[in-house]
């Protein structure tokens, strides 16, 4: 555990600039306008009291104000990961979930703090955590992050996943069945489903996460309908783990706000999602991640290449069909793996690159992780875009993100959270003007 935490802090230098200064001008070479989906050149950002006071090429030099020259950088709104599991760190073994679930609660929270900081260092200023976090450990982590004296991501939480009997598992050994009770809220019938939602809301969740399907179980239509109705009456959104078409379609018909994963989706289901305004969170992987993950389960050489290619071809096709039919796409990584070759932050941000590898333009995929995600959170008035009045949650990438996306996306110069700047790779130079 100490090794995990020390690694996280080495990755994320907590040097800060602007914490005591209330006003700052930052000059950038390019700036991503997430609402218009376009890159602007030679922009300046005026930060005051943690907010964007002004933005544009018209801002001139001002006296008695700190000035930061990042003219070689591209600025984007703080990135948003809508599908995290900060309290789960799972090895690629058959018993990986069981072992990860046996980690004591206080240690899981410590892990989560480290992973949150790694995410911030990679440009993720907001995360939505969707279960596999014990019984409301995510709420405890959210509170710790909120009171931290150093910058941390804003966290939205779901509490334990509401599921049919068996959680997300088709079969478990009796000795391992504790995982279901510890990590899930199993429901049996519509009334129990309503009570589960009310329990979650009482605990203070921001979203309800349901597991629509396992390998051999699904939530019944009356159960998912009751969950959605109860949550929406209380102003709480619902998102559904649904890997197959039939379960996803049932969830959409019931009125869920989002579908997580959706690896296999028919055109008719995608059209229904577009009609009802149901967003899709494709938890896809890059080609590099696919290779590492496949090798991790012992598939190497041509066998591994063919397996990874088959999976990627399938999810790329599904994503492009979803986009063509007008489905709102929102970025979510679902990255919880304990893989040394793929650190937590890089693994999380990689999902954005995966969308580009599917053939979606850079200006589109960045909107999935900024503007679209902020709207789904109900927070688009404060995050997800760079304009006057918005929170100063900003990422500054070294280089031209528009034209060198696969490289620059993983080269963060500086992250600003609520107007406080942190530098993953050392402190930038600032000067008084």
Automatic annotation (TrEMBL):
Gene3D superfamilies from the UniProt entry: Metal-dependent hydrolases (3.20.20.140), Urease, subunit C, domain 1 (2.30.40.10)
**InterPro entries per the UniProt record, alphabetical:** Amidohydro-rel, Metal-dep_hydrolase_composite, Metal_Hydrolase, Metallo-dep_Hydrolase
Matching Pfam families, A to Z? Amidohydro_1
Residue ranges of domain Amidohydrolase-related in the record: 75-419
This one is known as Amidohydrolase family protein
Organism field = Emticicia soli
**Taxonomic placement:** Bacteria, Pseudomonadati, Bacteroidota, Cytophagia, Cytophagales
